[in-house]
Amino acid sequence: MSSPELSIILGVTGGVSAYKSCDLLRRLQELPGVTPSIHIIPTRSSLNFVGKSLWEALSGNPVHDDMWQNTYAVPHISLARKADLIIIAPASAESISKFAHGRADDLLSATVLASTATKILVPAMHPEMYQNAAVQKNLQYLETIGFIIVQPDEGRMTGEDYGLGRYPELSKILHEVRRALGLQRDLTGVKVLVSAGGTRESIDPVRFIGNRSSGKQGYAIAQAALDRGASVTIVSANVSLPDPRGSRVIRVESADEMHTSLSAEAANFDVVVMAAAVADAKPMASNEKIAKADFTRIELQRNPDILATLTASRRADQVFIAFAAQTGSTGLGRAVEKYSAKGADLLYFNDVSGGAIFGEPFTSGVILDEPSPSEEISQISKYELANKLLDRALHKLGFSND
Fold this sequence. Notes:
single chain; alpha/beta; Rossmann fold; 8-stranded mixed sheet; about 25% strand
């Protein structure tokens, strides 16, 4: 039985790291279970780094680099319609701006604009350029309209430059390619339960105590698990994001409601991810609105410790992933204490000083995973973190995720 054929466009923009896409091309040709036909669209500036003849030799296909060649075939439309996937690697700051603003002044940007295929963007540039506010704004916008962004690595650049913006390891790019093509279904048959969002604790019928959690991290974990074939249920507290397609969503408001729902569900799942920000305490709520003149203090009582309650009655074959948002220089130490005390198998710590991380598309922190060494995370997407955590959970379940 022959493997299904795929048409993949590899767009290459100007940058020293363009040579690394030669190796990416080879790895794409070796994707398991498919027979990809790979068409290279280099920008004119990228040909200063890797020539047209090399791309043709490696791909086995003619290289398209000029929108005004073979115009009778309308190349940007014919290429766009055939493409099952478009990868732009490396993606320069200029190309990112073109895609974000709908410009179509060369063959690559016109093809990207005309195509409805999934698009994977691999930014690679000097740290000062990558961290520029305009570039970050463009990347965030492209992510909202469906582009998959592979975050660059931190490391040595040209000359003695060092920082965030290095062409990422091929494994990161190929992970996104396999996911986009439905080739990575390593969580098929696995049930994943995710808590997400932030609880609200009533003061009276119109007021509440809440927190800054947007639910983005929990929903990213749910989406990543769905993409890898898992059956996913989300216990969602006050989240305004669209429900991940294919998930089952249980909506709650307070810590007590979340506790009730998670207690009823957790035993039926292989992986339990506690990503929600749950209030530690709740007010002694009034059934009537408190008059302004009488609103002088709030009496609090402790909420149940949901994570500790669930892990106390867990099955031996379950994996629990916890989160710890802390502030200040002692934050990591407190996260380590939580990890030791609560019975979680993995814990992700992040420093949220000044409101950092909440509501943002990117995250930084530390993964605690004994007996493995801790892993420091720097400015990656919440979706990428989700896959890192799921990789580790899969390993703990006893499956290979190579």
